[in-house]
Amino acid sequence: MPSLLPTGTVLESNIKQQASYEFKSTYAYDFVNKKFIKNTDGTIKKLTVFDSYIVWCHKALLTTRYMYCIYDYYYGVDKIDIVNLDDTAIELEIKRTVKECLMVNPLTKSVDNFTFIWTDTRIDYAFELTSTLSSKTLMSSSIELRWNLGN
Q1: d(CA 113, CA 123)
Q2: Which residues are CB-contacts of 7 (< 8 A; sequence separation ≥ 6)?
Q3: Residue 141 has what pLDDT?
Q4: What pTM did the predictor assign?
Q5: How far apart are CA 68 and CA 38, in angstroms?
Q6: Which residues, other chains included, contact 137 with Cβ-Cβ below 8 Å and sequence gap of 6+?
Q7: Which of 37, 43, 124, 140 is buried deepest, with most CB atoms within 10 A?
Q8: CB 124 within 8 A of CB 101
Q9: 3-state SS assignment for residue 139
Q10: Where on the phi/psi map is residue 144: left (φ > 0), alpha (ψ -120 to 50), or beta?
Q11: In this structure, are strands 29-30 and 35-36 parallel, antiparallel, or unpaired?
Q12: Of the candidates 127, 144, 149, 121, which has an alpha carbon nearest to the alpha carbon of residue 61?
């Protein structure tokens, strides 16, 4: 019976190396007042690559995944259906969705150490975000979100 496996040949693959990506800076944006931050001369302030990464994280966490066709399928955070979930399951879903959202960016090294504070109608949570650009770990106080469990 003939063998199904090839004999005497070496299979070669032509896998291309992943192209290096040039990270660029972006413009400063005030998420509270929903407007661009301007310099004293009236021009819009341009951020460093590291600060642009922080803005990207903030914006990605504020964007619902699959909602806008301008973004690809990897951008944004999944909507969590909290019906019939206990507190532990909700916390696990928040951890999963936030990690999936931020780990897409190649500048994200880790997303760890989640803390949760439960109130009557919402969950406040914080986490540590570590970037490959900097050795320091950022606390999520600048990108902390509130999950609205009420109406």
Answers
A1: 16
A2: none
A3: 38
A4: 0.72
A5: 28
A6: 128, 129, 130
A7: 140
A8: no
A9: strand
A10: beta
A11: antiparallel
A12: 144
The tokens for 101 are: 């959202």
Q: What is residue 40's predicted lDDT score, i.e. its pLDDT?
A: 94
Which has the closest alpha carbon to 77: 64, 66, 91? 64
DSSP letters of 114-131? EEEEE-SSEEEEEEEEEE
Which two tokens mark 85?
């979930």
The CA-atom distances, in angstroms, between 131 and each of 39, 40, 123, 137 are 27, 30, 25, 7
**Residues in a beta bridge with 12:** none
What whole-number distance in Å separates Cα of residue 133 and Cα of residue 72?
24
- The tokens describing 115, both together, are 């803390």
Q: What CA–CA distance (Å, rounded) separates 55 from 129?
A: 13
The closest alpha carbon to 80, from 67, 63, 66, 97, belongs to 97
